[in-house]
Amino acid sequence: MAQSSVFHRDLNAELPVIVSGDGSYLIDDTGRRYLDACGGAAVSCIGHSNAKVREAIKAQVDTLAFAHTGSFTNQPAEDLAAHLVARAPKGTGAGRVMYLGSGSEAMEAVLKLARQYCIEKSEPERQHIIARKPSYHGNTLGALATGGHAGRRAPFAPLLINVNHIDAPYPYRLQQDGESETDFALRMASLLDAEITRLGAETVMAFVAEPVVGASLGTQPAPKGYWARIREICDKRGVLLIADEVMSGMGRTGTTYALEQEGIAADLTTMAKGLGAGYQPIAAVLAAQKVVDVVKAGSGKLWNGHTYMSHAIATAGALAVQQVIEEENLLANVMTRGAQLKAGLGAAFGQHPNVGDIRGRGLFWTIELVADWATKAPFDPLDGIAMKVGAAAKARGVMTYPSQGCVDGVKGDHVLLAPMYTATEAEIDLIVQTLAAAVA
Ligand code: PLP
Fold first, then answer.
1. What are the sequence ranges of the domains in the chain?
2. The sheet that has 163-167: what strands, in order across it?
3. Distance between the two ends of the chain, CA-based, in angstroms?
4. What is the number of other CB atoms lying within 10 angstroms of the CB of residue 38?
5. CA distance 180 to 119
6. How far, in Å, CA of 137 to CA of 6, rounded?
7. CA triplet 243, 198, 150: central angle to 5 degrees?
């Protein structure tokens, strides 16, 4: 390929040119096929080039692409919102959906909506946001400030908004010897209570967290009881609960929203990656009826807007993706293939001296690489060991999602897997075998 004119992450890299997709595979201009075991960053999830989604997008292009949301709504946007609201975690109420173009924009939108909620409720002094570390909530400045990822924050410090961070539950490194799962869950949840008290209960606007932590920590679910306790604390203190389901949502962990499995509902939920599954750049915010009621009774206006909200082609594409997931019963395959992946990783790495932890849920799994299994000592993040494993897997034709360890030493390097919900038994076997060869 001639020198690229596109601004890539690595300006010195020569990237393969992908020309087509076929189920779990991406194909480059030399005809080489890559088994996509991560869907980019857990984006593609129903396979590449799905015929039903392609047809739905083509049909929408033939009728309506865009009508400005200042004056109109449109049918695909309404149909997708009805679909999402109908499947919202119990406790959301009727709810409403707002569309954005990316996960980061969705995070900005929920922070602004939380702020609007507090002002409309005549509680303008509620301004503090509490989030967790590690976490990743996006790349725009507000979302970046919310994320607790030392390496990504550092170049842009001081960030525009001040966000307070508590530890995310991370059993491998934070659960104490002899501490039960319940005790660990309650201890980690009590960090939120303590932080609200420290800041002053009447000054806290929202708590933001990923129900299953994605890229920053590597598919880390919370211990049993954590989320129920978090919900109680938020209710007791009048703090909004914001679930960032950009990566964990839309079936990735086996249910549409990961928080469903915890038996609670958030007040505001973001979703993105599996929503459009890569067929359209689309994200959404789901607001519980409690939030909608306050805004309706207050100014009655949404204090946020982007030109391309409710884009008809984007929403039609995303609706088709969600229908494929449901009509083809793909979440059952997520659970079956997820169990196979968990067992395969356990067999391949359970005794490996450089794999300290294997964690995940559904079809969302991670191995954490360590320099010393006994002491859990991480590799020096500057050695880029996860990146080397990712490159070795790519050289063998399998795409994974490697992440460097935290420069602040909070966690080690990891390699994340997020295969397609349509993955076959043979594909999962090949993913595990290739990762084992890459680690070796
Ligand atoms: N929130 C979470 C949990 C994410 O994983 C990401 C992206 O990886 C984002 C937000 C930001 O999404 P986007 O990259 O679409 O802006």
1. 18-49+329-439, 57-327
2. 96-100, 283-287, 268-271, 240-245, 204-209, 128-133, 163-167
3. 32
4. 23
5. 41
6. 25
7. 55
Is 244 near ligand 1, meaning CB less than 6 Å away?
yes
Residue 86 and residue 319 in contact, taking contact as beta carbons nearer than 8 Å:
no
Ligand 1 and 434: CB distance under 6 A: no
CATH class for the region spanning 57-327: alpha beta
Centre of ligand 1 from the C-alpha of residue 277, in Å: 13
Q: How far is CA 50 from CA 54, 57, 216, 312, in A?
A: 6, 11, 30, 19
- The residue assigned the tokens 């984007």 is 314
Closest residue CA from atom 7 of ligand 1: 138
Confidence category of residue 409, pLDDT binned at 50, 70, 90: low
Using an 8 Å Cβ cutoff, are 234 and 291 in contact?
no
**Geometric angle at alpha carbon 118, from 114 and 123, rounded to 5°:** 155
246 pocket-lining for ligand 1 (C-beta < 6 Å): yes
* Per-residue pLDDT tens digits for 413-430: 999 999 999 999 999 999
Q: What is the pTM of this model?
A: 0.97
Among candidate residues 360, 353, 278, the one with its CA nearest the CA of residue 314: 278
Does the beta carbon of 248 sit less than 6 angstroms from any atom of ligand 1?
no
Give the tens place of pLDDT for each residue, 163-174. Answer: 999 999 999 999
Express the helix, strand and coil content of the chain in percent, nearest 5 each: 40, 20, 40
Instruction: Tell me what ipTM this predicted complex has.
Output: 0.99
Is residue 318 within 8 A of residue 51, CB to CB? The reply is: no
Give the CATH superfamily of 18-49+329-439: Aspartate Aminotransferase, domain 1 (3.90.1150.10)
Atom from ligand 1 closest to the CA of residue 281: 15
Whole-angstrom Cα distance, residue 432 to residue 341?
A: 7
**CA 364, 105, 240: angle at the middle one, nearest 5?**
80
Q: Tokens 């360890």 map to which residue?
A: 405
φ and ψ at 179, to 5 degrees? Answer: -80, 130
